[in-house]
Input
Amino acid sequence: MAKRRIKLGVLLPTRGVLLWNKGAPELGPVADLAVRAEELEYDSVFAGDSILAKPRLEALSALSALAVRTEFIKLGTAVFLPYLRNPVFLAYQLATLDVISDGRIT
Output
């Protein structure tokens, strides 16, 4: 019988980036968490999305940066509101993230 692997993901604190540092926001600590999650063999990392509510880094841009820092971990958004975006531009953003991440978006 094959060993069953539990899939666990991590919600990254992309809102915290704006709250931790009183100066310019930095993605470095969030990227470090994503790299560590990959080292610990987590299945995925997620960035929150909130255009109208809580301020945070834009999810797809942040995931693009994380795709460059990681190798195999899946990348996704926690809650994503596509109706608040231009559909053509959103498709373009997602296709670009798909290329950058070698198909790791979920």
User: Anything to note?
Assistant: Residues 87-100 form the longest helix (14 residues).
